[in-house]
Batch of 2 targets.
Target 1
Amino acid sequence: MSIVIALGILVTLATGFPVVLQMRKHPKGLFILFFAEMWERFSYYGMRAILIFYLTQHFLFDDKYSGGLFGAYTSLVYLLPLVGGLLADRWLGTRKAIAFGALLLVAGHLTMAIEGKPAEQILTYAGKTYEFKAEGRGDERTVELMVDGKGYAFGPKPTPGLLIDGAPAASPLPATLTEADYKLSEPEKVSGPNIFENLVGVFGGEVEETVSKQTLTYKGIDYVVTKREKGEESASTVLIAGTPYPIAPPKGGLVVNDLPATASLPVVLDDGDY
């Protein structure tokens, strides 16, 4: 145990003991008020401590944008009570204001338990796309660039660009990329459930499907791949000559089902083919 923690515990005990003795002289309702406010403060400051990590590591927002959202949020925390106080004084009254505030507080904490699907990012180079794979949180978080089914660490160059560590000479992606060589983007999102639809799904209702699109490149020809997800179910199709065909991702490639013999895309694709 560090000396800082030991001093913190000592100061807490030294200052808390007289407070506990004095609380016996206060009304009983003050106990409820005290502990409710104590846990509310604990929750608020604890949530603030992880908010930036959630914005930058889950949603992949940059530091500047995340800092702006964090500042706006903390500002509204202190400004919106003015509006709430006005509503309570003029229309709601004391009892309703406390009840509504408590319900909103509990509802907000429940929705924090719904993490949702993390943001995804892809790198496009020479007409081909490569996915980033992220695992872990905080200091234990690792992000790798997937090339031919294998993950590689990467980092910034001294000049704008990327350095890919350990990429073999035969890799379709070079170890050094300048900023003009590649493009970072998110898979196209056509539609998807919002937080209210997620709540409906949690309580047994119907959840709207999420549709995302990516580009599959084979021998210089681009094909649109559409992935539909609804709850735990998902299905993917590839558009060939205006007709969608279902695809299945076995280990180490793709299989295009129901594909005619005259199609420009073969039925079976290895990882290195596309």
Note: Residues 253 and 271 are 5 Å apart (CA to CA).
Target 2
Amino acid sequence: MTESDRILLTFSETPVGWNETIASLFGASILQTVEWAAVKASGGWRALYALWKNDSQKPIGAALILRKKLFLGFEFWYVPRGPLLDWGNDVLRNRILNDLIQTAKKNNAIFIKIDPDLPVGFGVPDTESYHPNPAGQKLLETYRGSGWLFSPQQIQFANSVWIDLEPSEEDLLAAMKQRTRYKVRLAGKKESPSARGLPLILTN
């Protein structure tokens, strides 16, 4: 039995403890939670939850699949900010992507769109600050070799900026370029809309 054969896949439309299960997986996002599925349900999307486990019954991959009815019984499938898995694991990556394709075909889905939160690189492209992310680059190779196509209709933001908010406001401003500091302070003077954020907790 191969390593791929030891991976177990289950599906559910009403999972128990889904949010707690996915919280430990790489790339866990609010867009993969039961709450997001409930939001999308108002727009006619039906949720299907896929969970991959190893032979020790430990979750190693997951995907909230949103299904939209089309014409003649066909469907459109979308996995927002997913699937969730260790993208550096070649066997797991190939198994999950293949499972998604095969399951979509069996359920008359003529399109399946995935949108994992996996950077292909870090820094600003075409500058000295940029360096590729091996896992992201490997996924691009997998896409090209297995028939996936880039979608010009991007739903989620293509780029993200992460800022450590532990330092004081003064230290954060001091680390910025002069023009960035100017824009931040100008926004404050103009009373630009802002809101205090709260920690995101994945829970049912």
Note: The mean pLDDT is 89.
